[in-house]
Every structure is written in structure tokens, then in C-alpha cells.
Amino acid sequence: MTTEHIIELDDPAAREASVAGEKAAALARLAQQGLLLSGGFGVNAEASVDVTAPIAPQIESLLANIDQSVRALDEASGAIQKLITGHPSILQRR
Fold it and tell me: C-alpha angle 21/50/75, rounded to 5°?
């Protein structure tokens, strides 16, 4: 992850959940309304796309095979978690 993925909470764009995520956007909106924060930043939504790019085809395949069952969703979720935590290029970025 690079600094291009970091968004300061005082940046007007940080108020948008689609940019900074729900939690950071909520904090940015509170700061805009006068809540004193000790500074802060969020990681923009593009970061997850960039970080998971090497395993995106496998993730897409797992998601495409989910049916309406909770079991299928649980199995796909577990498999995606293993892909993310086990991929060397993702672990190196931490």
C-alpha cells in the first residue's frame, strides 16, 4: 500500500463512504461538525482492489459459485480469507 491510498480525515473527500469507507467517513463528518479529533486518516476504497489484484481471479471465481445457501457463502468466505492471508505479495505489504 502506498501513500496514494491514504486519505486525511480533514480532506473533504473523506466524508464520502465510497472513498474512505464508512468509519472514516463518519469520523470526517463529525470533525466537520466540530468534534475535536486528534487527527487521523483512512485508507481509500481503491486500496483493497490494488492489494487483492494478484488473487482477484480466484476471488471472482469463488464468488461466482455461491448459491443461495448460507453454507456456500461460509465456504467461499473461508476460502477467500485463506487466499488473502496466504498470499505472499499481500503479506509483504503489511
Answer: 80
pLDDT digits (tens, 9 = 90+) for 11-47: 899 999 988 889 889 999 998 888 887 778 888 778 8
11-18 — which CB contacts under 8 Å span 24+ positions? Answer: 14/42, 18/45
Secondary structure of residue 91 in the 3-state scheme: helix
Task: Look at residue 9 and give its three-state secondary structure.
Answer: coil
Show the domain range for 57: 50-92
Q: Distance of CA 49 to CAs 1, 35, 37, 46, Å?
A: 11, 31, 28, 5
Task: Using a cut of 0.70, tell me whether the model's pTM lies above it.
Answer: no
Residues 38 and 61 in one domain: no
What is the tens place of the pLDDT at every residue in 55-74? Answer: 999 999 999 988 888 999 99
Task: Say what the alpha-carbon torsion angle 59, 18, 30, 39 is, to the nearest 10 degrees.
Answer: 70
> Is 54 in the same domain as 39?
no
